[in-house]
């Protein structure tokens, strides 16, 4: 991705409405323009991704502790899915539990961010993601152009 390319889509997966609004507000206040989708748990996020509503490139910001399907369960599911396995995921959570950190990195996350270490306005998160999106190459996108690519899961 180069400097002339638009910022990737963000999929925010977090069940906490206040935290999610804070992150969305930080993106709105920043100079970057990005589509932001939100899911409240892993099952809802999988439905969004498999429906092809979220176009590549995208970055997933994932909480660990959520109802129905937690962050680690979500990671395991997308890593087993050949169409989602290369998804770029940053953990964004309140948990600094060493088991959570180890489990997340075993599922190839790009980074593990503890919310309490970020500033209250999430500007450091925005700066990190902005720099990251400028210097990395995103996985190739699916070029079939159909929503049917997700029907043949795994």
Automatic annotation (TrEMBL):
<dbReference type="InterPro" id="IPR052893">
    <property type="entry name" value="TCS_response_regulator"/>
</dbReference>
<dbReference type="Pfam" id="PF00072">
    <property type="entry name" value="Response_reg"/>
</dbReference>
<feature type="domain" description="Response regulatory">
    <location>
        <begin position="9"/>
        <end position="130"/>
    </location>
</feature>
<protein>
    <submittedName>
        <fullName>Response regulator</fullName>
    </submittedName>
</protein>
<feature type="modified residue" description="4-aspartylphosphate">
    <location>
        <position position="63"/>
    </location>
</feature>
<keyword id="KW-0597">Phosphoprotein</keyword>
<dbReference type="InterPro" id="IPR001789">
    <property type="entry name" value="Sig_transdc_resp-reg_receiver"/>
</dbReference>
<dbReference type="InterPro" id="IPR011006">
    <property type="entry name" value="CheY-like_superfamily"/>
</dbReference>
């Amino acid at each position: 991705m180069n400097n002339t390319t638009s910022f990737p889509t963000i999929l925010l997966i977090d069940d906490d409405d206040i935290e999610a609004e804070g992150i969305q507000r930080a993106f709105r206040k920043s100079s970057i323009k990005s589509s932001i989708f939100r899911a409240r748990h892993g099952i809802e996020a999988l439905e969004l991704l498999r429906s092809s509503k979220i176009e590549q490139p995208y970055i997933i910001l994932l909480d660990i502790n959520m109802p129905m399907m937690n962050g680690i369960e979500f990671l395991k599911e997308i890593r087993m899915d050949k169409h989602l396995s290369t998804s770029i995921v940053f953990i964004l959570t309140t948990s600094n539990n060493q088991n959570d950190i180890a489990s997340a990195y075993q599922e190839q996350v790009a980074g593990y961010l503890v919310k309490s270490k970020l500033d209250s306005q999430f500007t450091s998160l925005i700066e990190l993601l902005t720099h990251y999106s400028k210097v990395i190459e995103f996985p190739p996108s699916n070029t079939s152009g159909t929503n049917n690519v997700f029907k043949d899961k795994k």
